[in-house]
Task: structure prediction
Amino acid sequence: MNETHVKLSNFDAVVVGAGFAGMYMLHRLREAGFSTRVFESGAGVGGVWYWNRYPGARCDVESIYYNYMFSEELYKGWTWTHKYPDQTEILNYLNYVADTLDLRRDIQFETKITSAHYDEANKQWNIKTDKGNSLTAKYFITGVGCISASHIPKFTGLDSFKGEWYHTAHWPHKDVNFKNKKVGIIGTGSSGIQAIPVIAKKAAHLTVFQRTPQYSLPARNQPLDPEYVQNIKERFQEIRKDARASRNGYSLNATTLSTQEVTHEEREKKYEELWQMGGVGVVQLAFNNILTNEAANETCANFVKKKIQEIVKDPVIAEKLSPTYPIAAKRIVLDTDYYETYNRDNVTLVDVKKAPIIEVTPKGLRTTDEEYDLDILIFATGFDGMTGPLLRMDIRGKDGVSLKEKWENGSQTRTYLGIANAGFPNFFMITGPESPSVLGNVPVAIEQHVDWIANCLEYLKANRIETIEASKEAEEKWSRHCQEVAQNTLYVKTDSWYTGANIEGKPKRFPIYAGGYGTYREICDEIAIKNYEGFIFVGVPLEQN
Ligand code: N01
Result:
């Protein structure tokens, strides 16, 4: 053992991350009597909501659904102020939960887990942190999120830049002063689209470097009527039931109508109604075949493109902002005044697909066309999604095989249910690759995983089972199933962080279960009912084996 590592202690469970996932995991494990320690790199709870403090950061799921729902009391004890909560409000909410459940005493902040190696002889995980802690745990559980490993493209010259630069996912904990500044932002995904309108109002000039335009729908965010909120709280049981059974983790009045069953005029009327209402309705509520049928998808995409052309006064800019891939093949973005921002005199849109970025210079950014002078450069360049947060730790299972080796660096990401891995006993991932997680309202996905894992650990304890591990066969079958389900969707037809296409050198694969939250929950429940079918137990008393 490295001598600088001071042995801390032995725990039943070590959990990585104190966001939505790690916080609830800690609560459930404590309730079940497991000694648990959570490690969190931030100085407070919140996970992505602790770090993503960029201007305009706001959730794209309605606040009434973006909650823990395991406790009616907890739900009713918090009152959201807006339809779509901003980063500050969500972070306040998570601190309210941490206070109410007294979570912080078992969380070690400002500490990263650097390695977790499975010790086969002692059937335990040997874990190390960047603060020199060395500890052991029977169970190693990751709650690291799917989009927490931020990514900065490898542009040369960043070190030479004389101005300030930031990544949206690691925004400083102080106000960035944009006044009289020339600002550049790279990236027009959810983060960029939220930040651009806010920064444009403050900066002297904003240059947006866009590689691929994204579809964005108006959020039409607004303060919540207290009477409405009260009514929602009273309907808690119903809201929870609907959210859990739904495809995306929130209740929607799903339609049974397809685009082919109505006339062009009726279709446009429906889209217009939902566009005016705000939110994801245009894509998710209008017709039942937009996400599965290319022709149906095109009617929706064309409607949004027409809107872009109506809003953006300069037709050349409107054209540049119009995507060419199917709508909702990437996570749909909700915005406030995004397209309107391009009518401002102090905003320039640069197409870096046409004229790629070559380098960062001391003065700014150079594309193949010209050099742009900048005081502040912002990377809204996203994340190494799904596998990134896990592979940034050195996780090794049996025979010292690392997760990176097992997944062949992401080209063969294989898991059982997105929860477990063959060859990695007593290791659980909350919303890991090949779970449905990111394709909906993530807190609902998290809660389902945490409940499943906690119930599983209680089962192991009750039956005196020492280790649990996914079988290779079950894992291969699940992974194959995920790929088959994905082939019937539009997600695999477009490059995005879902497929890993945004990371240089990352093999393309869609490591997400696209069958919907409700169906997935049923599958996981059935596996548990069948005494954890597809898992291998070690240490089972003979009479039960
Ligand atoms: O990241 P992204 P994000 N040169 O990957 C561009 C969640 N989220 O942080 O598309 C030039 O979507 C890249 O271009 P391209 C949500 O799930 C939620 O915005 O690869 N450009 C793209 O435009 C979301 O889906 C919320 O061609 C480069 C952008 O950077 C996910 O996080 C808020 C480049 C990255 O977009 C990720 O969103 C924020 C390069 N070398 C995030 N490399 C809400 O709840 C990358 N880009 C509202």
